[in-house]
Amino acid sequence: MAEITIIINLPTEFETMFSMQKRLSTIIIISASLMAQSAYAADWTEKVTIKGFASAVYQQTDDPVFFNGDCARTFTGPIPDSCDGTPGGEPGTVNGVTPANGGINEDGSFRRTRIGLNINANINERVTLQTQFLVLEEEDEYKMHLDWGFISLAINDEHTIRAGKIKLPVGLVNEFQSVGFAFPWIEAPQLFYTADFNGANITRESYRGLSYLWQTYVGDWAFSTDIFWGNIALEGMSLNGMLGATLKAEWDDSVYVQASTYSGDMLYEPRMSAMLNGTHQVATIGIGGDINGFLFYSEYANVTMDMDMQESTTWYASAGYTFDEVTLLVTHQNMDKGVNVPEAMKNAQTMDSITLRYDVFYNTALKFELSKIDTEKGVGLFAAGAATDIKPADSVNMFGMALEVIF
Questions:
Q1: What gap in Å lies between CA 381 and CA 75, rounded to an integer?
Q2: CA distances (Å), 260 to each of 247, 284, 306, 352, in order?
Q3: How confident is the model over 291-313, as pLDDT tens digits?
Q4: Residue 384 to residue 366: CA distance in whole angstroms
Q5: What is the residue-wise DSSP string for 168-206?
Q6: What's the fold here for domain 48-406?
Q7: Over the stretch 104-156, which tens digit does the pLDDT of each residue have?
Q8: What predicted TM-score, i.e. pTM, was given to this entire model?
Q9: What are the φ and ψ backbone dihedral angles of 106, each rounded to 5 degrees?
Q10: Any residues with CB less than 8 A from the CB of 175 and at least 6 apart, and which?
Q11: Which neighbouring-strand residues pair with 148?
């Protein structure tokens, strides 16, 4: 069978028209894609907010023993807890503590320097994602970790459920303790807010679990209740089955009162077997405010841990006045720890401070602070718990300065 080939020659104008239509289609597709991306970008910027803060902090005492550091050496009792296990510490350390994991001593420290970033996203009308990433010095380098991050579901204007890693709502300033610009001191009162095990053990950074938050407004008053449940994981220990509640009342954005209580089951590593299956219970109450430039803060806490030497009462009072951009503040702190135990197993420490804050700009503050730390019993927050350790002086002076910003 013969093959028949048909050749059709289109006029040049048809080829040109076809080519133009093809290019036009391509341009339309690319334009639509760019418009979609632009719309998505605009949508993203409307849904996500990014804020941050930073604190450059320097502190120095007039004593060689480290104060309020990361090392757990300060455990006072039958089981000395040294950082390196060597009586008196390895050469080049102070009681086994190096500047890399120590606190503040006569050599000075920038250990409280930090940078934080808040990234929050509106998933939809009721659901939000809230996070805070914090960069802190750990040992020899700075490391970033998730300070808190949780999903929030607003049932309505008054009721909210949160789940994830949530800031523990115990203490007037604990939920924003990392944001130094937000309060007048260089650090939140250390005897009350310390994470040192030999301290009062009142509050921690955050917990993993659930929260039910209720908020309402009546005239000039705002009321809230936060019921929380979960666990706190720490090095060498954990607090499981924690259940607590925080009640807060605030008047005219000027004065606020807050009360908290929580309890949970302690689980420690084997060397702390005396405290296994114990219960950690905390109760706090506090008041704070700013009335026509007059600042005041005061909190009280009672802690029991099924062990007499760990039972404590801690309180502080702080008052000051703001003169335009300058704030002057005085603070007294008191920690008394250990009941029905020998004097050698008790810890009693006070701290008196005067703080000067100068607001350089609306988002920048410069702070200076002088403190006097008196240790009446034990070693307080000093890293000197082992019998062979160098002990701090009964009275130690501390100087601090900080430059803090929000953005």
A1: 10
A2: 6, 5, 19, 25
A3: 999 999 999 999 998 888 889 99
A4: 32
A5: ---STTGGGTT-GGGSSSSSS-HHHH---TTS-----SE
A6: Porin (2.40.160)
A7: 999 999 988 999 999 999 999 999 999 999 998 766 678 888 999 999 999 99
A8: 0.84
A9: -70, -15
A10: 167, 168, 169
A11: 132
